User: Which sequence fits this backbone?
């Protein structure tokens, strides 16, 4: 049997207390544990008592760490489990902490998923497929993720996708108009928007076409290709190489023929 001979409040952590047994430092506890076990000077403790107190202190300490981790933003159950495992918390203690957090409604993957989707809808230009993948990466199950993303309906998707695509379309580019449209379609798909939404946006999107500027873009790229190809090709073969390369860059056949005609005239 050991007796508590001194209880000392820590200077740097005022919520923690050092416990001395038989005039020697034995362990430290949080204020909540101190109150829970009514620890006081003169109290006698068995070895089993100390073991039980330390076990609850360990749970309380890691619970406090989880609460602190949650204080920065909402977390999924999987994120909390991963965090506690990285702190080398034992599986039994993790389960006890998880149950307590869920009971206190501090962990709710459904609420997390719904809030996450709203945030992505309002703050980013991402589509629903990408958002669902992000939720799964955070440990939210597929069914919960798919249900949460239902709030991102096609009307909201179209509005978000159209605004993003029109803004991109207004930027200056060295590419042909058709190439730019192709790139926009690919990017919208990569962002995770539904195929029907992507097609609808591309039907409505407007890209100003200035024939002189379009030809200037073609001419710049064609001249670069010409310098490369004429090292190994000439005549008809050279023209076909140029024509194929410019088609691949999505320039119109009319402008390509215009360039090739001028090339013939200059030679």
Assistant:
């Amino acid at each position: 049997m050991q007796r508590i001979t001194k209880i000392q409040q820590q200077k740097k952590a005022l919520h923690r207390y050092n416990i001395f047994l038989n005039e020697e430092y034995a362990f430290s506890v949080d204020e909540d544990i101190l109150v829970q076990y009514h620890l006081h000077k003169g109290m006698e403790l068995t070895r089993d008592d100390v073991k039980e107190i330390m076990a609850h202190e360990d749970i309380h300490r890691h619970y406090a760490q989880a609460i602190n981790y949650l204080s920065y933003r909402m977390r999924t159950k999987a994120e909390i489990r991963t965090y506690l495992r990285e702190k080398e918390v034992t599986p039994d203690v993790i389960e006890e902490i998880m149950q307590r957090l869920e009971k206190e409604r501090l962990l709710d993957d459904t609420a997390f998923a719904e809030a996450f989707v709203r945030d992505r809808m309002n703050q980013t230009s991402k589509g629903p497929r990408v958002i669902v993948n992000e939720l799964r990466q955070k440990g939210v199950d597929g069914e919960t993720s798919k249900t949460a993303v239902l709030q991102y309906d096609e009307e909201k998707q179209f509005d978000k996708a159209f605004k993003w695509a029109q803004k991109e379309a207004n930027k200056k580019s060295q590419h042909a108009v058709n190439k730019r449209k192709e790139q926009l379609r690919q990017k919208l798909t990569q962002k995770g928007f539904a195929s029907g939404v992507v097609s609808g946006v591309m039907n409505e999107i407007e890209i100003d076409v200035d024939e002189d500027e379009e030809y200037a873009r073609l001419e710049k790229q064609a001249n670069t290709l010409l310098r490369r190809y004429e090292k190994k090709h000439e005549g008809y073969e050279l023209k076909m190489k140029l024509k194929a390369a410019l088609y691949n860059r999505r320039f119109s056949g009319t402008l390509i023929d215009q360039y090739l005609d001028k090339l013939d005239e200059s030679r």
